[in-house]
C-alpha cells in the first residue's frame, strides 16, 4: 500500500517531466494520470492525497529538493 512518503517521489517525477517546474494542479494531474490505481488501493490516502501532496512538498522543501515558496511564483513548484 502506498503512503504519504511515496508522494514525494511522485512530485519529483512530475516536476522532472515538466522540465523542473510545474503548477500544483499540473502535478496533481500527473500523479492522478500515472498513479491512479495505486491511489485507489491506498486506503485512507485515496481520500487525502491532494492534501498530503502539499505536505510532501513541504518535506521536499525541508530537504532542499524543491525551492522554497518565496523563491518561485505562487502555485508553482520548482526543483532545486
From TrEMBL:
This is Restriction system protein Mrr-like N-terminal domain-containing protein. It comes from hydrothermal vent metagenome.
Amino acid at each position: 500500500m502506498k503512503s504519504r512518503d511515496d508522494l514525494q517521489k511522485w512530485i519529483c517525477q512530475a516536476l522532472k517531466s515538466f522540465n523542473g517546474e510545474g503548477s500544483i494542479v499540473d502535478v496533481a494531474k500527473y500523479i492522478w494520470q500515472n498513479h491512479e490505481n495505486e491511489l485507489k488501493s491506498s486506503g485512507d490516502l485515496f481520500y487525502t492525497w491532494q492534501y498530503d501532496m502539499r505536505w510532501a512538498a513541504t518535506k521536499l522543501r525541508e530537504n532542499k529538493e524543491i525551492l522554497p515558496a518565496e523563491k518561485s511564483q505562487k502555485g508553482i513548484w520548482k526543483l532545486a
